[in-house]
Amino acid sequence: MKKLILAEKPSVARNIADATGAVRRNGYYEGETYLITWAFGHLLQLYDARDYDPSMKSWRMEKFPFIPDHFSYKLKTDGRNKEKADAGVVRQIEIIKSLIGRQDVDGIISATDDDREGQIIADELWYYLKPEKPVERLLLNEWTAEEVKRGLNSLRPNETMKSLQDAGFGRQIADWLIGINLTSVATLKSRHGKESRLLNVGRVLMPTLKIIYDRDKEIENFKVTKYYKLIGTFKPGTKRQFEGTYYADDNEKFDKPDALKELAAKIEGLPARITSKKVTRKKEYAPWLFNLSGLQGQVTSKNRGWTSDKVLKTAQSLYEKKLITYPRTASVVLDESLIDKTRKVLEIHKKECPYEDEIRFHTSKRVFDSKKVESHSAIIPTYLVPGKLSADEQIVYDTIRNRFLAQFMPVAEAEDTELKLRMLNGPDSEAAEYLDIPGYFMAKGKVQIREGWKKIEGIDSKDTQLPNVSEGETADLKKTEVKEVERKPPKPHTEKTLLRVMETCGRKVEEKDDQEMMMAILSGFSIGTPATRAETIKKLKTAGYIRAKGKSLTCTDLGKRMVETFPARELFDLEYTGRLEKTLSDIEKKKHTREEFLSLITDFVKNSVEKIKNDPVFGGSSEKPPLHTEPVGICPECGAPVMETDKAFGCSGWKKGCHFAVWKNDYFITSLGKKVTWEMVKILLEHGKVGFHGCVSKKGNRFSAYFYYEKDPETGRYKWRLEFIPLRGKEK
Asked: Which residues of 457-488 are buried (b: 16+ CB within 10 A; e: fewer)?
């Protein structure tokens, strides 16, 4: 007899087939002991509202809130035609169904990813197909042949995964209830006001938008202020000179320069005595191994054009090629059961490292700590050495491998030196007394004594060396300078900083607070999961709530309005969203039930729908200026007047077949941080071109250019052509 194995994707099915000696058939693999087939992620989806009630095909406000008595599944629909099932899904479901029904199959093995989402990808199918044969669960962290064989010898009954299943189905149903009800009602309400587009509302989407909005507001409300510092340049005898900063009451920042200027004049030409010398040798440990958010942050911050979604997809590809362990993890350490396996992996990969002689295996708690592993260990390479990788795969793989090797390199060490100097009252340094001023000068230096792991991570340590002086020595003050320093506003969020805030649910955890950060992550109190955060950022862009300029993320006008006026305020509360995510995590740990969670969500949806319906501000009358009634110009295509409409500046001769139009939401123009306005189109039609200063490219570079709107002779469509203008002084 044989067992049927269901993998999450064809590539994973192939890995299992390679490990078990199975050969390819039509839609599955077959070996002596196992049949192996696959899903394509979710083959099923929850019913749409109209599947429960045909009258829901058209949205009407009185139909909401819509809460089904039970939830059912159907085959995933075609991407272009929602009325029919996807043909590939239908075919694969039939293959799975026929394999389950084979007489020589006496059991089923779920081999989907070992997480909440992977669990329900398979369980949806068993719920839908209702097989009468027992189902077991294969739980793996990587797809190497060795791990597959080990896993197949340690299966567990699928019933033991019920808590993970409950969390997965609870999340799925909750997001359906919130998305269907609040998106529909918000869109209906807004159609009578400012917006005619779909307003996407989601449990994770809204608080993530709020994070970006809050940072934008911080920047907007930031008031530029200045402070002043007094810098002294000292020369100790024949030794080289160095700089020190003046402190009073342990503070080096002063609101006004006048007192510092008076002090500088008073101490000019006088010597100072070194009253203390403090040398501290510090150990600098390698950063933690990567979880998914850490990997996404590292790659997006170091490489132009990368998004967190791209990092996830690339890491997933490496995982399916058996080159790295499971990427959708929140953990930054390894389970202690992996000690022997990790030693083997290290022995293989250190041979490819130019610092092989410095690498030493160890079992430090910074690498192995079972108490700090949530479901999956941190991401590391497997024992397989890759062949040819794509350029993107190489970037992500090298990042993971280098961080892994760094854990076993020597700890970096640096020597920090602090010199405290007090001014003397005369040139005779032996007899002179300390000058009667309230403060002192402080000089700080740092020297990297041992680079250690920094060599692998490619971190250049910047040394600030001080001369070799001793306590009691004197140094002449050669010059002083009062420096004006402008306090800078906070920077816009990048995907790296946004992922970190989502991971810790907005808690202000500094990079150095490693333990606090780790416990915040492992508690489950977060916004989304490692697997969903990249998709959330992508959805915010697609929904038109945020835009990317280079690496910076900022709110659009639509995003700002959603945060400021959307009535279901709980969705923007990071604490509220964090509690929901923690409840899902607690369901996995059997601390809460799915029923309790969904009861909470149902009440929230009912209350929120009523708030949206009755809110006097959200979806109110349009604040847009009235449309211009006079022509903006003459159509270059047919000579008819070009008029303004809600969505475009278009030719009035459209009934005669002229399709000339400049769309207000033109993606090319808006992607450069500019708008299509009446004045802009007027200039364009009069002069054949329009100039823009301060355009921002996708890479964040600023430029100026003339824009020409020209017809493509091959396609007959109009498109933009740029003629760059040399940058002026301030723009450079």
From this structure: beeeeeeeebbebeeebbbbbeebebeeeeee
- Distance from C-alpha of 314 to C-alpha of 439, rounded to nearest angstrom: 56
Question: 2-154 in CATH: which number?
Answer: 3.40.50.140
CATH topology of domain 292-406: Topoisomerase I; domain 4 (1.10.290)
Tokens of 699: 């890479």
Residue 295: phi and psi, rounded to 5, are -65, -45
Q: Where are the domains of the chain?
A: 2-154, 170-221+491-614, 226-283+416-450+468-486, 292-406, 633-731
Average pLDDT rounded to a whole number, residues 692-708: 80
Q: Judge contact between 139 and 156, C-beta under 8 A.
A: yes
| Average of per-residue pLDDT values in the chain | 90
State in words which class domain 226-283+416-450+468-486 has: mainly beta
Run of H or E including 532: none
CA-based diameter of the chain, in Å? 105
How far from 49 is each of 57, 71, 188, 215, CA to CA, in Å?
A: 8, 10, 16, 37
- CB–CB of 578/527 below 8 Å? yes
The domain made up of 170-221+491-614 has a fold known as Topoisomerase I; domain 2 (1.10.460)
Confidence bin at 619 (pLDDT 50/70/90): confident
Give the pLDDT band of residue 729 (cuts 50, 70, 90). very low
- The pLDDT value recorded for residue 694 is 77
Q: Yes or no: say if 541 and 489 are a contact pair by the CB < 8 Å rule.
A: no
Helix then strand count (H, E) for the chain reads 21, 24
List of residues 6+ apart from 318 with CB closer than 8 A: 324, 327, 393, 396, 397, 400
Give the dihedral sign, CA 606/609/615/618: positive
pLDDT band at residue 496, thresholds of 50, 70 and 90? Answer: very high
Q: Looking at residues 270-286, what average pLDDT do you find?
A: 95
d(CA 296, CA 285): 21
Contact 320, 11 (CB under 8 A): yes
* Tokens describing residue 3: 């067992």
- Which pair of structure tokens corresponds to residue 322? 């058996």
Q: pTM higher than 0.85, yes or no?
A: no
Q: From 176, 183, 184, select the one nearest 63 (Cα to Cα).
A: 184
- CB distance 278 to 418 below 8 Å: yes
- Render pLDDT for 62-119 as a digit per residue (tens, 0 to 9): 999 999 999 999 999 987 788 899 999 999 999 999 999 999 999 999 999 988 999 9
Distance CA 726, CA 732 (A): 9
Residue with tokens 């929230």: 604
Radius of gyration of the chain from its Cα atoms, rounded to whole angstroms: 32
Average pLDDT over residues 542-561: 93
- Predicted local confidence at residue 635, as pLDDT: 92
CB atoms within 10 A of CB 322: 23
Highest mean pLDDT among 53-62, 131-140, 428-437: 131-140
More confident residue, 185 or 197: 185
Instruction: Output 538-542 pairs: Cβ under 8 A, ≥24 positions apart.
Output: 538/307, 538/309, 539/200, 539/202, 539/205, 540/205, 540/208, 540/209, 540/212
Per-residue DSSP letters for 369-381?
-GGG-BSBPPB-B
